[in-house]
Write a structure and sequence with these properties.
With 73 residues, this protein is an all-alpha fold. 62% of the residues lie in helices and 0% in strands. 0% of the residues are buried.
């Protein structure tokens, strides 16, 4: 069985204010890590092997051909 005092000792709570504080603390830690990672990696926005969404487009002709193929099905 679990009572409220043992939940409090384990850091578990249903109190909205406590949950909000924990979320803000986690967000701050994530932001600090993000800032650290960016400072270490320099000006490289993506890792090798990753494709930037705005630079990855199929040629219009290929899209047109695929569209026609799909309409035939």
């Amino acid at each position: 069985m679990s009572d409220k005092s043992s939940d409090k000792q384990n850091g578990l709570t249903n109190d909205p204010q406590e949950l909000l504080k924990a979320k803000h603390a986690a967000d701050k830690q994530k932001q600090q890590f993000t800032n650290f990672a960016r400072s270490v990696s320099g000006d490289t926005p993506t890792d090798q092997g990753q494709v930037s969404a705005d630079s990855h487009h199929e040629p219009d002709q290929q899209n047109h051909m695929k569209d026609q193929e799909n309409r035939m099905m």
